[in-house]
Design goal:
By secondary structure, the chain is of the alpha+beta class. Helix content is about 45%, strand content about 10%. It is built from 11 helices and 6 strands. It has a 4-stranded antiparallel beta sheet with strand order 1-6-5-4, covered by helices on one side. A two-stranded antiparallel ribbon has the order 2-3. A hairpin with a 5-residue loop joins strand 5 and strand 6. Helix 4 (about 75-90) packs antiparallel against helix 7 and helix 8 packs parallel to helix 9 (about 255-260). The longest helix has 24 residues, at about 125-145.
Length: about 290
């Protein structure tokens, strides 16, 4: 398996070497260099959005108003939210603190506040805006890569290269696509590369959030299905996640990603993980379900 440079909060990554490599091994760190393939991530991101937008073009009024797995959000609100995150990605700049809790961001309330600006927008305008801003986001990101631009942004777990913020955006988009499609009894037309990117980031951010609530993780997760493999996570000195793409027997990767994002009421998908690590990894999901002010 090959190492794939992605980004680092300590210095630039070798993007030219990354471009020819696919995610056989992924490494994410809160301290030091991260490894994956940002150009391939953009290809996977583009495919995910193309598939989702094609489905949305077939929605009628009832579909747009329907509930989703995202508590209290209709399909229309989910897609308007993704339009908002597109704009955030387009406007990303050095030391950007848009998603930094110390600057006032709360994932339970801030995205809802952003929706106020588009409250009166008709669904047909939303889907057109979603397609247009997706195209702009991907073009801006490809331009940054072509220009070898390296700069840090601030996230809940500290400063990281802007490409890690891009991975965060993909994870959010993939989860919300499932929120809409699975709630209507439809299949999620994902693939192994998309699932491993989303699951890897889900494990990484869950492990990074855990220490904020007193949790710690040092575990090897064997996940099955498309996007599965061996996920080694260690939060003892910063957080390091290493993912080896391989055929593995265990919980389905996509279902674990759902559970870590709070889409499973029990987190039973992590049932074979030792109790201490399971509890730590589910602290983020518990936080998402905790009312503000609690």
């Amino acid at each position: 398996m090959s190492d794939m440079p992605l980004a680092t909060s300590d210095g630039p990554a070798d993007i030219s070497r990354a471009a020819a490599i696919r995610p056989g091994k992924l490494i994410l760190r809160t301290r030091g260099e991260c490894h994956l393939d940002p150009e391939h991530l953009l290809d996977v991101f583009a495919e995910q959005r193309q598939r989702f937008i094609a489905v949305l073009h077939g929605f009628g009024p009832g579909d747009w108003a329907a509930a989703t797995r995202c508590a209290g959000w209709s399909a229309h609100e989910v897609v308007r939210h993704l339009c908002d995150t597109n704009l955030i990605g387009i406007a990303t700049h050095p030391d950007d603190s848009t998603l930094d809790p110390t600057a006032g961001f709360d994932p339970r309330t801030t995205p809802r506040e952003w929706l106020t600006a588009s409250a009166a927008e008709p669904p047909e305008i939303t889907v057109s805006r979603f397609a247009a801003t997706t195209g702009e986001l991907l073009a801006v990101a490809r331009g940054r890569l072509a220009d070898s631009r390296r700069f840090d942004v601030r996230m809940p777990y500290g400063p990281v290269d802007w490409t890690v913020r891009l991975l965060h955006g993909f994870w959010d988009s993939w989860i919300h696509e499932r929120d809409v499609l699975l709630a209507r009894g439809a299949e999620h037309p994902t693939d192994g590369d998309a699932t491993v990117y989303a699951t890897a980031y889900g494990v990484f951010i869950a492990a990074a959030v855990a220490p904020l609530f007193g949790g710690q993780v040092q575990e090897e997760l064997k996940l099955g299905g498309d996007g599965g493999g061996i996920f080694e996570v260690d939060s003892r000195a910063g957080v390091t996640l290493t993912v080896h793409r391989a055929t593995a027997t265990g919980p389905l990767a996509a279902q674990v990603a759902d559970a870590l994002a709070g889409r499973s009421p029990t987190g039973a998908e992590l049932g074979n993980v030792p109790a201490g690590s399971r509890a730590a990894l589910l602290l983020m999901a518990d936080f998402f379900r905790t009312p503000t002010g609690s």
